[in-house]
Amino acid sequence: MLTVDFQRFRVKPGERVLDMGCGAGRHAFELYRRGAHVTAFDLDAGELAGVEKMFGAMRLEGEVPEGASAETVRGDALELPFPDGHFDKIVASEVLEHIPDDMSAMRELLRVLRPGGRLAVTVPSWLPERVCWALSEDYHTAPGGHVRIYTRAELEAKLKATGFRVNGHHHAHGLHAPYWWIKCAVGVNNDDHPAAKAYHRLLVWDIMKRPLATRLAEQVLNPVIGKSVVVYFTKPAGSAGTAAAAEDAETADAV
């Protein structure tokens, strides 16, 4: 299930692309299928082991174009182990809401992206996330959980202050917000609750079959209760992620 729209965020074969905070690797796998040189980056060694195994399976099954490559790298989002301007594109999906010092992570994204390169950021949308927080304390207080709820305006302001230019946005996964509300209401770890199990079966069926009815429903629901908001950015040509830009970005810490 992809959150980034690859019709809007086009990736060309041979481009160097970072999936920062890759988790289980869903976007990294799509980038690999599109012929990119993919770096799947995360702090969780267990997640990265699974991603590396899937990369290998994709190669064996012939799912990737000739010339594409993929690697996993473990590290801290506040100190990315890559040279300045190394990547053509970056995906940061559902990760910034986990990072207390999000502005430092944003400055690192700016640093390792080449001038003219593009960034796709996804975070939980404000309204669905606010409902989840109201229904369940466990949802956001678990170790490694969400430390903030972004408004789109706040996310854009912080990344603009860092040095990025905004290129548009959309919402995604309108059918998924009710599932998480149910989970928060009955217990986030209560996977056996009948309501949670029934809705989960619906989501799996939708992901596998993609019927017209649910696609149309999601188009209607996304702007209202889409679980994620996706914002696209560009690093302006001539920008180098300088110390001066970093100092300017400090002013957004209070946003």
From TrEMBL:
- State if Methyltransferase is listed as a keyword: yes
> Which InterPro entries does this entry report, sorted A to Z?
Erg6_SMT_methyltransf, Methyltransf_11, SAM-dependent_MTases_sf
Give the matching CDD domains: AdoMet_MTases
Q: Which domain of life is it from?
A: Bacteria
List, in alphabetical order, the Gene Ontology terms for molecular function in this entry.
methyltransferase activity
Q: Which GO terms describe its biological process?
A: methylation
Give the UniProt keywords, A-Z.
Methyltransferase, Transferase
Q: What is its EC number?
A: 2.1.1.-
Q: In the UniProt record, does the keyword Transferase occur?
A: yes
What the entry lists under SUPFAM superfamilies is as follows: S-adenosyl-L-methionine-dependent methyltransferases
- Please tell me which top-level EC class this enzyme sits in: transferase
Domain Methyltransferase type intervals? 18-120
Q: Which Pfam families match?
A: Methyltransf_11
This protein's name: Class I SAM-dependent methyltransferase
**Organism listed in the record:** Actinomadura rugatobispora
